[in-house]
Design a protein that fits this description.
single chain; 495 residues; Alkaline Phosphatase, subunit A
Length: 495
Amino acid sequence: MAKKPNVLFFAADQMRADSLHHLGNEASITPNIDALLNEGVSFENAYCQNPVCVPSRGSFLTGLYPHTTGHRTMHFLQRENEPNILREMKNNGYEVIWIGGNDIVPRDRVKSAYCDAYYEGIDFTDSRNVISDKIFGGLADHQPKVTKEMINDGSLYSFYIGKLEKLDLTSQLDWNRVKIAIDYIERKSKEKDSKPFFLYCSLFFPHPPYACEDPWYSRIDRSKIPPRRPNIQTLKDKASMLYGINAKQHLDNWSEDRFTELRATYLAMVSRFDHQFGMIVDKLKETNQYDDTSIFVYSDHGDYTGDYSICEKVQNCFENPVSNIPLVVKPAKQFEVKPRVSKALVELVDLPATIAKMGGFELSYTQFGKPLLETLAGNETHKDAVFCEGGRIHGEEQCMEKGHGPESPYYPRLATQGSEGPEHTKATMMRMGNIKYTMRLYEKDELYDLDKDPMELKNLIEDPEYQETVWKMKERLLQYFMETGDFVPIGRDQR
């Protein structure tokens, strides 16, 4: 039997696919991620399964779609008996080291069943058996005081700060996480006859606020920043949520130069993430563990960063800035690979199936991902369709994320989500080929031809020329829900 490969998940928070240099962003500086294309594959058509953090992470750590088990909100984490890939890897001979954000196991539950060590990053202590009532160890207690001026000029709701003159606590969190990962790799290299490792390292950036220190802040060439998508108020038949957020964020009077600075800062944060990834790669090479390690670099979802004159993310909209995410995979040397940028349609839900296949074991539960090994080897036909979903039905107050007033930067989105109008409608997006279709429960569906309209500006749902396409998409979506609506547990109860 072949040696089990090590596995590294290096995850960003809120990084859009087109923020990488090798995917066409001339202003971006991501040499370390780009270099993986010498030995790996970048999937330019990779999609997350929900455009906000918790449901997305719950999906890519289980291989289940958010609707299958009801994980569609920020405040519904895994039940104790629900499976995920962390526990599966631990039970199949891997040493599992979990670094960074949680977003899957409730804070009143220890994490020893899921990993051999857990580091949040506030300090360098293994806290897998610690129960806490504070998010990020109380980091939220240190956020700056909000002023009326910040609300009125849009700086609060835009999340824009710009250049960091000194390292803030959130930035320090990511540097701590990288150091913990590097220290572990060094320590692991000195162990004899040790288990293979699964290192899941999840950073906070480039999640807003948009802020970054030098040298990364000053390196971005503002003249190369790609053009923004036009203000949502100039477009017809888009989701109500987008119009509602735009009206509350107060960014319509921003100059283009100001938006450019925001977008440059975001790319600086991406560049810093790339640098931190490079530090980990260097340590893997230095300790002769690189060839034996399958590396996955990806993000949980994207960010509008000024497109449509909107910042941040949204819970039930699926334009490419928020649903199309980077996914770059460098497999261990034992696996066949054809290095390239692949156009295959893939999903984050494919990750658990992929690393289980690499690890030579079967998952103990039904899931809906498809291993990427054949696609890594050169097959461009992976899936005929990919999906992203979100929103709620009327009356699901548990999905509203209450408790954020006007002093919160999240207020524009969350206040709009709280409406019982169409804004927070339950919706599902499906992409087949270059056609994107979104079915919405309480308002007009959407259809975009990405070949003709890559910025998703013209909703074709009522265009006579596309009606046959609409019905084909609806039929495929019905099949999707029939296949993934639930599953029967593999274990059998006695009766």
